[in-house]
Design a protein that fits this description.
Radius of gyration: 18 Å
Oligomer: single chain
Order of helices and strands: EEEEEEHEEEEEEE
Helix content: under 10%
Strand content: over 45%
Structural class: mainly beta
């Protein structure tokens, strides 16, 4: 069993540590598990939002392709954070593709956060979100990598208790650069840049900044 710990902090979610695990089925396939403590940061107001999931990781040359299915606990998706936190708040089909070789590192992620339960009262709404990013970097030395990052979060819709649909609304569109330092089992990455959305048309107006500290065992 291999385990990874990533201590993440960014301009929107705040502190959101993540743990991953993988158990090999054969040389090309692993069972995978993950958990994200969103409630450690901003999402503590969303019923201490928590995400857990599992899937399979397929190795193909320099690429690792990891489809997973997650579930959230809390209140963000089931009631727009208006009611109590519940188990099975939302369902999260997601896909991560990692690239790693002697010259390059990169990642593509996409996850759809859909309400799994409806805990709304009159005037409340369920929420569905789309979250995706992509980054690519070059290994300048054995311990230093430099590259670029793009990330997008938006409210994709939902159902209003009493009739009507929630309109699509941007959260952020971050674009910028990153630098990563790593050695052995540990390292850190800092990413930064502007938010491409207009403050009047979004629910987040911070610049882009994200710090990741990671350990792999």
């Amino acid at each position: 069993l291999s385990v990874g710990i990533s201590l993440n902090h960014d301009a929107f979610f705040g502190f959101n540590p993540m743990i991953t695990a993988a158990y090999p089925v054969n040389k090309k396939t692993d069972f995978t598990f993950y958990g994200i403590q969103w409630g450690a940061g901003t999402a503590r107001a969303w019923g201490n939002w928590t995400e857990f999931g599992m899937g399979l990781n397929f190795k193909a040359g320099d690429f690792a392709i990891n489809p997973q299915l997650g579930f959230t606990m809390g209140s963000l998706l089931s009631s727009g954070a208006a009611q109590r936190g519940v188990v099975g708040d939302g369902i999260v089909p997601n896909l991560t593709i990692n690239l790693d070789n002697k010259k390059l590192i990169g990642q593509v992620y996409g996850g759809y956060y859909a309400a799994f339960r409806n805990e709304t009262k009159a005037g409340n709404a369920t929420n569905n979100y789309m979250h995706y990013w992509l980054n690519l970097g070059a290994k300048a030395t054995s311990w230093l990598a430099l590259g670029g990052h793009f990330e997008h979060l938006y409210l994709a819709g939902g159902q209003v208790n009493g009739g009507g649909d929630v309109e699509r609304t941007d959260g952020y569109q971050w674009i910028g650069a990153f630098g990563q330092v790593s050695k052995g089992i540990a390292g850190f990455r800092f990413s930064f840049g502007p938010d491409l959305t207009r403050p009047s048309e979004t629910f987040s107006d911070n610049d882009f900044y994200k710090m990741q500290i990671f350990f792999n065992f």
